[in-house]
């Protein structure tokens, strides 16, 4: 995920081998071509309205940063929400979780601010207010505190977000937890709570460096090979896989100044149709189901109803 304070993932994850044509590795797309495919964006990326329309032909979903910590909202989020809605791309909103906000309160949750006074929770709620989104994702990878402490605090926070979604009638809205495999491995026991939520995993099968390519050539030449290791988080199932690691420079998306920028790319572990079902997303062009006709009530004259009553009374006397 893109956050304000970047760190170098390559320090934590050693790619097994470079996936480039120069290295003589041929990508096979049979596995990956069937999966829903998307990007994640934040204030570091810029997409014009025309390019949002172009993206519609190459991606199936978008993950957009909405907020971070207790006092920051991504200034591009509202526009990203509007543009994604306009071109009919389902949007997943993500919040970058900051552990340091809770350090002074310690492990005793009773000493934490109540949910109503939890500034980080309220910041996320404020960012999502009056926005169209189909899932909420927590980006859990903050390195300012020890990984076990972050894992513990993020678990409490995730429960608060889930409770809030349920309280506003969004019980069916997916709650997704994102983290890197490199981070999970630092505190597997403390992170075990994650597996009860939908999971988005960062694991990169590429060497460092960037590649300028096209969307078509990305699919043909740079999608992971069939033999590429699948992110499992110690054998837990995954719902999304961020596989690119800020590697690919692609059309339609620039940096804030209009220059080149690398994108994080993601697979959903299912087809586009399954993704839509998972997100409860119905494209605006989807026709409404045809209602079953309700038979019109029979209208009888007074004479006909009197006759029916006489027949009923006659049947009663015979009985």
Structural features, described:
By secondary structure, the chain is α/β, with parallel strands linked by helices. 27% of the residues lie in helices and 16% in strands. The chain has 8 helices and 11 strands. The protein has helices spanning 49-55, 77-87, 119-128, 147-167, 181-184, 215-222, 272-279, 302-318, and strands at residues 37-41, 61-68, 72-73, 91-96, 135-139, 175-180, 198-202, 211-212, 240-242, 248-249, 262-268. It is globular and about 95 Å long.
Q: CATH homologous superfamily name? A: Glycosidases
Q: Given this structure, which CATH class is correct?
A: Alpha Beta
Over the alpha carbons, how many angstroms does the gyration radius reach? 26 Å
Structural class: alpha/beta
Strand order of the largest sheet: 1-2-4-5-6-7-9-11
Please name the CATH topology.
Answer: TIM Barrel
* Number of domain units: 1
Q: Considering DSSP H and I runs of 4 or more, what fraction of the residues is helical?
A: 25-40%
Q: Beta-sheet strand percentage?
A: 15-25%
Which outline best applies? globular
- Euclidean distance between termini CA atoms: 80 Å
Main pleated-sheet profile: 8 strands, mixed, barrel
Number of helices: 8
Query: Which CATH architecture would you pick?
Result: Alpha-Beta Barrel
Look at the structure and give the mean pLDDT: 84
List keywords for this structure.
319 residues; alpha/beta; TIM Barrel; 27% helix; 16% strand
């Amino acid at each position: 995920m893109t956050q304000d304070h970047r760190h170098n993932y390559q320090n934590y994850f050693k790619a097994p081998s470079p996936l480039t044509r120069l290295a003589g590795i041929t990508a096979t797309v049979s596995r990956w071509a069937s999966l829903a495919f998307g990007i994640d964006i934040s204030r570091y990326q810029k997409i014009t309205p025309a390019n949002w329309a172009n993206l519609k032909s190459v991606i199936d979903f978008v993950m957009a940063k909405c907020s971070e910590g207790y006092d920051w909202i991504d200034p591009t989020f509202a526009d990203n929400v509007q543009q994604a809605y306009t071109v009919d791309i389902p949007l997943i909103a993500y919040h970058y979780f900051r552990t340091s906000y809770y350090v002074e309160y310690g492990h005793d949750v009773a000493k934490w601010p109540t949910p109503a006074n939890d500034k980080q929770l309220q910041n996320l709620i404020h960012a999502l207010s009056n926005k169209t989104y189909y899932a909420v994702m927590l980006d859990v990878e903050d390195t300012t505190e020890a990984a076990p402490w972050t894992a513990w605090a993020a678990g409490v926070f995730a429960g608060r977000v889930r409770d809030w979604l349920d309280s506003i009638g969004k019980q069916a809205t997916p709650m997704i937890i994102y983290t890197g495999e490199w981070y999970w491995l630092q505190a597997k026991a403390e992170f075990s709570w994650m597996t009860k939520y939908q999971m988005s995993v960062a694991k990169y099968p590429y060497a460092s460096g960037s590649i300028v390519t096209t969307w078509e050539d990305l699919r043909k030449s740079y999608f992971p090979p069939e033999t590429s290791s699948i992110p499992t988080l110690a054998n837990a199932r995954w719902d999304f896989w961020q596989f690119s690691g800020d590697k690919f420079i692609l059309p339609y998306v620039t940096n804030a100044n209009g220059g080149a920028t690398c994108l994080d790319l993601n697979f959903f572990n299912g087809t586009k149709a399954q993704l839509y079902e998972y997100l409860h997303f119905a494209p605006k062009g989807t026709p409404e189901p045809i209602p079953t006709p309700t038979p019109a009530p029979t209208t009888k004259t007074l004479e006909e109803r009197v006759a029916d009553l006489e027949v009923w009374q006659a049947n009663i006397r015979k009985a």
